[in-house]
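Kindly inspect what follows.
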Amino acid sequence: MDFLRCVGTISSYRLPLDVSGGWLNRAPFMTKAEIVQAVYSRLGGFSKKESADLVDLVFETMKETLGRGEKIKISGFGNFVLRDKRQRQGRNPQTGEPITITERRVLNFKASQLLKEALNDGVADTAAASGGEALAMSPAKV
């Protein structure tokens, strides 16, 4: 949960536009550079280069682990699982022509209950303030 708070404060979804103090809204995603900045700001004791190396090491370790076909379980965050999909028949959506979809590996992420709750904390408050009801997703459908 501390990481989520850190992400929220570091990535404000607005970047400085110019020296005059204007702001530019940007797409709602967080870049690797922003993760490095979050590690640098929150942890301290590391240089920016060391923070970047630390983030790279985490991502590289995750890639290697998934590459070996192992699952990654991060308590309070979620699970990353590689699934092998078999070759199957499909159709070209534009022409309707039958095609063969090759076998491949796909990465699935399933958020933990704690992460789901943290992400949905403000949803009920927002819906109640607007006079609507918050829609709850059943765990079986998520």
